[in-house]
Amino acid sequence: MIINKTTDSRLATFDQENFTFGNTFSDHMVVCEYQDGKWGDIKLMPYGPLPFTPAMMGVHYGQAAFEGMKAYKDADGEVFLFRPERNFHRMNKSAVRLAMPEVTEEMFIGGLKALVDIDRGWVPHGEGFSLYLRPVLFATEEALQARISTKFMFAIMATPARAYYPKPIAVKVSDHFSRSANGGVGYAKAAGNYGGSFYPTLLAQEEGYDQVIWTDDCEHKYFEESGTMNVMVRINDTIITPKTSEKILDGVTRDSILKVAEHLGVKTEVRDLAVEEVYNAHKNGELKEAFGVGTAVVMSMFKEIGYKEERLALDVLPEDESVAQQLKKFLTDLQANQGEDPFGWRVKVEKGYADQFLK
Ligand code: COI
Hints:
The chain folds into two domains: about 1-160, Aminotransferase class 4, branched-chain amino acid transferase, N-terminal domain (D-amino Acid Aminotransferase, Chain A, domain 1), CATH 3.30.470.10; about 170-335, D-amino Acid Aminotransferase, subunit A, domain 2 (D-amino Acid Aminotransferase, Chain A, domain 2, Alpha-Beta Barrel), CATH 3.20.10.10. The protein is globular, with a radius of gyration of 21 Å. It has about 350 residues and is an alpha+beta fold. It starts with a strand and ends in an 11-residue tail after the last strand. It is about 25% helix and about 30% strand. Strand 13 (about 230-235) and strand 14 form a beta hairpin. The protein has helices spanning about 55-60, 85-95, 105-120, 190-195, 200-205, 250-265, 275-285, 325-335, and strands at about 1-5, 30-35, 40, 45, 65, 70-75, 80, 130-140, 150-160, 170-175, 210-215, 225, 230-235, 240, 265-270, 285-295, 300-305, 310-315, 345-350. The structure holds 2-OXO-4-methylpentanoic acid. 2-OXO-4-methylpentanoic acid binds near residues 194, 228, 294, 295 and 296.
């Protein structure tokens, strides 16, 4: 790894009390370029613009995928990653599906650790605060033939984060648009999955909703995801979530919430979840909670589900009555080293990790 530290840190001008997620970037970024069939040096350098031409293939044909993860700071100022190997493996699943070269562990995990170590001052401390990390892989060859690019870039950037959707949201069950299809790229964190979701979301927003609940593309009978999150419901005492498939992203938060639930003795079911089942559970008073889970948001409670012409109102329970909120609390305490970690998920970023690369 080649390290070029900034001489002009912006940290002193960063207002840790007042910022918007995703608009401010930390001092450094990781960049690694692929050409002639191999990855070049891993570079940790000052964050900033890079030169590209509008003929860059990734922009035209969508060979691009990203990851989302976070670093957390505890009360003693120690900094932790959370299950980074899951994101590493998922990045490479996305890479394979989009015919891009896989990244190495040194690039992904080593790059994350070096970036977070050098920019540890940018990891905010406090409830709901973290440094969001965004690894991205995209085609950079300057060419317009519709084929696999021969050049790629892998980069990691970091942006301070706070609770993403702090308020309960209204979601609309899609009866027309789809996020993914059998044989498609739904399980990958492909950039196009997000780009394709914006228009249906805009239409839902015009009807007063925040997000779309994505349903299967054949019949729109089964829940798949919600907005950019995995979806879960609590019917009576059981948390139910659709099983992952080639259409559904294998979310790290989804998996973690399920494991925390099992650890705490909450019943879980991972299976097909029919819209009709959720509708009937609501009518019978058995739908206790419904929510989305994802890295950026952690958990977003639903206050309303729009289905056909109806708007089903949901009570948003106070924290001590909400099973979902209790699971979230266990998870976020674990992530921020404020609670036990029975799973060994926290990965400490040692102070001085990046120094080993300094000449
Ligand atoms: C994440 O939770 O990391 C996401 O994918 C949301 C992101 C698109 C902001």
